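Now for one record.
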Amino acid sequence: MSTKTRSHPPQPAARPAEIVREFGPFAGVTQVHGVSYDGTRVWAATGAQLLAIDPRSGEVTRSLQRTGDAGTAFDGKHLWQIAESRIDKIDPATGDVVASIPAPGGGGDSGLTWAEGSLWVGNYRGRRIHQIDPATGAIQRTIESNRFVTGVTWVDGELWHGTWEADESELRRVDLRSGEVLDRLQMPPGTGVSGLESDGADLLYCGGGGSGKVRAVRRPRAQPN
């Protein structure tokens, strides 16, 4: 059974996002559609292949010939990749697709992340985030946004998502229950976000869309109430 929550104004003032590092552009890559992090490597979906990037050197250390036109996630063992209207579960050791489930947006999906046994999927033009069952793709919960959703990630119990609209992008922390916007980090003008993933600490990796880059943004720690 799905539940739906709505975001409520007013929103906090946006702060400038602190970009601490850029990776790429990479040879032959014209788009980054999704990003994830497996604990040691940043993964970037570039259309025809998934690239593994060493965040220390910025070098590509591996590639998998797998289609990826939107979000990427890592569940601790497998990669999950949106490919048009489906989500593929991929063995990163072999590159084999071991399972596939339908994507909730049927091709209108954007970001993807894994948290506590569920996949969380951004719906770009629907301005929504869905929590789905990774075994069936069934929607379990929906959170609404007032901006296009271009990436989603969880860290320390916080839900963040990326936006990209009217040539402006933000990283937003939202309340899981109400959808209320709790924090806003504004990317520099013309710097879009196409995919979002935390490193589990202080960085948020952001796909850079047509720049062919991946950017690392410093995550501010939530202030105690």
Summary: The chain has one domain: 32-218. The domain at 32-218 is CATH 2.130.10.10 (Methylamine Dehydrogenase; Chain H). The two ends are 33 Å apart (CA to CA). The mean pLDDT is 93.
